Structures are given as C-alpha cells and as structure tokens.
Automatic annotation (TrEMBL):
Region ranges (Disordered): 319-362
Gly residues biased stretches: 351-362
Ranges for domain G-protein coupled receptors family 1 profile: 38-286
Keywords, sorted A to Z: Cell membrane, Disulfide bond, G-protein coupled receptor, Glycoprotein, Membrane, Receptor, Transducer, Transmembrane, Transmembrane helix
Transmembrane segments: 26-47, 59-78, 98-117, 137-158, 187-208, 229-248, 268-289
Membrane is among the record's keywords: yes
Protein's name in the database: G protein-coupled receptor 68
SUPFAM superfamilies: Family A G protein-coupled receptor-like
GO biological process, one term: cellular response to pH
Amino acid sequence: MGTVAADNSSLNCSVDHSIHQMLAPAVYVTVLVVGLPANCLSLYFGYLQIRARNELGVYLCNLTVADLVYICSLPFWLQYVLQHDNWSYSDLSCQVCGILLYENIYISVGFLCCISIDRYLAVAHPFRFHQFRTLKAAVGISVAIWAKELLASVYFLLHREVVEDDHRHRVCFDHYPLEPWQRGINYYRFLVGFLFPLCLLLAAYRGILRAVHRSHGTQQSRKDQIQRLVLSTVVIFLVCFLPYHALLLVRSIWESSCRFAKGIINTYHFSLLLTSFNCVADPVLYCFVSETTHRDMARLRAACRALLTCSRTGGPREAYPLGTPEASGVKSEEPELLRKLHSTSQTPNSPGGGGSPTAGLA
C-alpha cells in the first residue's frame, strides 16, 4: 500500500507514501481542532479592527478567510490519507482541494507581506504614505492578491491531477517524477510566490527594528514586545514555508528519474505538512498579541461567564456591546503599541502632545 505510479511518458515510478499516511492524519486533526476556533476568533477581532477604521483589520480578515477555506478542505484530505491515498471523489474535486491546499500558501504569504509593510510604514514613516494606509487601499490590495492567486490556480484546472497507482488507487495531485508543465509553474511559485515576498518581509522588519532602536521615548518593555513579534513572525514564516519551497526548487531542477523521486519524497511530504501549521500560527501572531485584543478577549470571557451564570440562575442578562469599537477597547486605528511609538517621533513643535499624529493617520 501507499505507492503511486506516475503516468509520465515511458516512466512508471512507484513511490512509497507510508510516512505521509502516518503523519498527515495527526497534522490535519491538530490543525482542525486548534486552527478552526482560533481562526474564528481571529476573524471576529479582525472585524473589530475594521469597525475601528484600522486597515490592518482588512488584511487580518483576508488572512483568516484564506486559512478557514483551507481548513474546510482538510476533512477531504484526511479521508484521502486514511484510505491509503485513494481519492474517492470526482477529478474536479481533487483539483479544487489541491488548489485550496497550495494556493492558501501564497495567499497567506501575500497578506503576511502586506501586514509587514503596513507596520513598517506605521512605525518608520508615521506621517507619510497615508494614501497606502487606508481601508480603501487595503481592500484594493486584497482584491488584487485574491485575483492573482485565483488566476494562477486556473493553470491547474487545465491538467489532469488524478492518476491510478499499482494498487488501482486514485492518487490526487501527485506526479513522480515531475511532469514538464509542473516545472515552469514551480519556478513561478518559488520566485514570485515565496522569494520576492520574503525579501519584502525581511526588509520591512529590518526597518521596524531600526526605528525601534532609534526611538528613545519608548519603554524598553514595549521595544522588547515589538522585537519578539518581529522575530516570531520571521521564524514562523521560515519554518512553515522555507522547507517546502526549498524542496520544491530542488525537485524542479533535479528530479528527472524515479530514483531521485524515491529519495526525496518523504522529506518533501514532511515539508508540505509544515505549511499547514501556518493556519494555527497566523491568529496567534497577528491577533492575540495586541493589547486591544487582550481587552476584547477579557470582555468576551466576561460576557460568556455572565451568560453562563444567568442561564443557571435564570436572572436577567447583562448586555456587553462587544460589537462596538468603544466596548472592544479599540480607540483608534492603531494598536496601542504603535501609538506609543508614533508619539515619540512627533516634532517638538507639534501641538497636542502625542494624540494628533495618531488621529491624522486614520
């Protein structure tokens, strides 16, 4: 069990998938159990950011929607691996689930990059580039990212993605060795989908760290918080996406024989499973780290406790208007951490202390 025969000209390559069938169920169940509620909360808090006229909320919501759409496809992949890599649905459903699996990587990368650049502009250039830090601009950029990835996914619909192995199992989205059409799209995915955004992300966060170090009015604890967020984001980005894209490039350049495919396939499948943990990491990094989110979560917990108490006692329920920006603790379009940093870069002659620069960014 667990082998696939690739219908690739005269080659008949049987590859062992046993390690994939052992690891994938555990990974998919973990992402479902942890990622689904975490992303639902992330979507709620991103909505609160949008209500507060914060463009970061647009990127957060789009990032969360991309994760949730991928999570919805995991039951199909879970059934697939539990049936020893036998796709029991239609060929079109295989293509759609494969597109959701792979394109979620690049949609996530795109919005992570947008969040990085937005935070760099907010910290390093709080009084410039205002036109790029509005809700309208964020919506336009989000539409462009989705359109780009959906158009790229059409390429996969033009090719057959279901083949039969030597056990007559219908294998979905696996070709060994790679077919010629796959090499070109893999180079595009590596260069445009991963390497270019990674360079932008590293450049943006280098600028953030330099701006933090130059700020003498910010408390050391707040500087440390920014630096931990920067480091955590880069580390998770590299852990989730770098191994997969490195092996994708290696396969595209050197995989021309069945022997090579057999030697790399287990490592390749492990790196692909790592990308799924991005759905768990995203809400932790970009939703639960801000002080406004901590206050929202505290109010949400208080509301839940009040509802449970009232349901047991039968008493009246206290209203918690969590849907309003005032009740959620979101008082401006910037997280409090960045507002504190903005105030340090205000010129000495600026009126109103540290309040007016933040208000001017809305």
